[in-house]
Specification:
Elements lengths: L3 E2 H8 L3 H8 L3 H6 L8 E2 L1 H11 L4
Antiparallel strand pairs: 1-2
Length: about 60
């Protein structure tokens, strides 16, 4: 996996950034441990990998 902008990942999922943030809400504690925060624009590879696997996004 490579780093991605949150907007790019949302586009790949077919949703808005706001919706992607809502999807992340139940996983917030786990994502925070990985270094994620809600206003983050550039997502590191491990967070992108987690989101792709969790939300079944084709990248």
């Amino acid at each position: 996996m490579k780093s991605m902008l949150k907007s790019e990942l949302a586009r790949e999922a077919g949703v808005s950034v706001k919706t992607l943030n809502r999807w992340c809400k139940p996983y917030e504690k786990k994502l925070n441990k990985m270094g994620w925060h809600r206003r983050m624009k550039l997502l590191p590879p491990k967070i992108v990998q987690f989101m792709v696997e969790t939300f079944c996004i084709d990248v």
